[in-house]
Design brief:
Helix content is 43%, strand content 15%. The protein is an alpha/beta fold. The mean pLDDT is 97. It binds NADP nicotinamide-adenine-dinucleotide phosphate. The site of NADP nicotinamide-adenine-dinucleotide phosphate has 30 residues, from helix 1 and strand 2.
Length: 237
């Protein structure tokens, strides 16, 4: 996208962590940004923290429900009349050996991480066709590296990577760009983490904000479709 000023983005799970930092980066680049989360209070507080309310929209939406995502996209189109960038970022993780993982944890992860990215795209694809926009998923290195106690999370993130790559092939004929970002450890609230000094070695969420900006500014002839990003030096244990 040659000029990001005035372009409109929707970030699912923008109330904290990576989604919040990407929202900050896009706002600083002159974009208008809608963020979502499951709790009205939390997402509204995050929107207030982001600043100028003319350029920010807080939406209560649970990505596990297609009807919520359809409502979110309607709100954005009603407010700004266009939708140029969609970041399907909302995600959760439960980590346990498979014999200890509950059915509820399994279904929550599949419904949020995998069904969620589908719902977000299903709700926004016509708007993205109209804008020749950009759809980005937040996958993970867990979408290519499997590990013990990660069966459920691995299943969702391998799924997100495969989904996004196939969608890229489906949508490029409409000039819609599609990428998946696959980070290693990021210093966020993920998995009940409280970000602190101990996370200094990790990727910082604002680094993912910079990465998303780089993708949006890439010359339209070129598409980085699958981006692995990791801490330069792993934790010294
Ligand atoms: N942190 C890492 O090390 C890491 C590494 C690789 C990939 N990722 C991926 O990055 C994405 C963002 O995670 P994060 O690290 O930023 O975690 P985070 O700090 O826990 O933030 C997660 C965000 O997702 C939202 N969310 C969760 N379930 C939702 C639902 N059903 N509907 C709407 N929003 C929902 C949360 O909002 P509410 O709680 O307010 O609903 C929150 O805004 C996830 O997909 C995660 O798998 C994270």
């Amino acid at each position: 996208m040659a000029d990001l000023k005035g372009k409109v983005a929707y970030i699912t799970g923008g109330s904290k962590g990576i989604g919040f930092s990407v929202a900050e980066a896009l706002l600083n680049a002159g974009m208008k940004v809608a963020i979502s989360g499951r709790s009205k209070e939390t997402v509204e507080a995050a929107a207030t923290q982001l600043g100028d309310q003319r350029n920010v929209l807080a939406i209560q939406s649970d990505v596990t429900k297609l009807v919520d995502e359809e409502h979110a996209v309607k709100m954005i189109l009603n407010k700004w009349g266009q939708l140029d960038v969609v970041l399907a970022n909302a995600g959760i993780g439960y980590f346990a050996p498979i014999d200890e993982m509950t059915q509820e944890q399994w279904h929550n992860m599949i419904n949020t991480n995998l069904n969620g990215v589908f719902h977000t795209l299903k709700a926004s694809v016509e708007a993205l066709k109209a804008s020749k926009g950009y759809y980005i998923t937040l996958a993970s290195l867990a979408g290519t590296n499997f590990f013990a106690m990660g069966a459920g999370y691995n299943a969702t993130k391998f799924g997100v990577v495969g989904f996004t790559q196939a969608v890229m092939l489906d949508l490029r004929k409409y000039d819609i760009k599609v990428s998946t970002i696959m980070p290693g450890s990021v210093a966020t609230h993920f998995n009940n983490n409280e970000p602190s000094e101990k996370d200094a070695w990790k990727i910082q969420p604002e680094d993912i904000g910079e990465l998303v900006l780089d993708l949006l500014k890439m010359h339209p002839r070129t598409l980085p479709s699958k981006i692995e990003v990791r801490p330069s030096r792993p934790d010294k244990k």
